[in-house]
Design a protein that fits this description.
With 168 residues, the protein is an all-alpha fold. The chain has helices spanning 13-22, 35-65, 68-79, 87-94, 98-109, 113-131, 136-142, 148-159, 163-167.
């Protein structure tokens, strides 16, 4: 069973959530205050605070469990996913050899660095499709695909529908 860490660095989001919760009227004595609404907002803020703590704890736990070469490579792939990465470039960045990095990555992440990169690119592309008005061509290039056709093919393989349907 996963254990939460006893202490962890506080997320930058938590202080603002706490401040919002503490600024709500306590008793509903204000004529414009609706006690049920105040309770609902407090419950929602409490859930948000708890969710942020759990997200931070999971992120911290995962990062601590990964060997340094895997953590470095994973961070690099996530932050610069549009870059044309190679296993050799990642191995150089992590000061390991390519075969060892692939072995570690598969052992600790469950897939090779390149599979991880392509999955991350797909997730980012689907997110951009659903949250922006960028064209499919723009999304594909921002996410590191060589062409819109390649991106569209990968979306259809993963989602079972073309990018235009994912967008809706």
């Amino acid at each position: 069973m996963n254990q939460l860490p006893p202490t962890q660095q506080i997320s930058t989001l938590l202080p603002s959530l706490f401040q919002g919760a503490m600024s709500l009227p306590g008793s509903g004595s204000d004529l414009t205050s609706i006690p049920e609404l105040d309770d609902h907002v407090r419950d929602a803020l409490g859930a948000a605070i708890f969710s942020e703590y759990i997200r931070s704890a999971k992120s911290m736990a995962v990062t601590k469990l990964l060997p340094p070469p895997v953590a470095i490579a994973k961070r690099a792939l996530e932050s610069d996913y549009a870059q044309p990465w190679s296993v050799d470039a990642l191995a150089s960045l992590t000061e390991t050899n390519a075969n060892y990095l692939i072995h570690l990555f598969k052992k600790h992440v469950g897939e090779s660095p390149m599979q991880y990169l392509w999955n991350h690119r797909m997730d980012a592309g689907v997110h951009l499709l659903q949250t922006t008005r960028l064209t499919i061509d723009e999304v594909s290039h921002r996410c590191g695909f060589q062409s819109a056709a390649h991106f569209s093919r990968r979306v259809k393989e993963r989602k079972g529908v073309p990018p235009s349907t994912v967008r809706r």
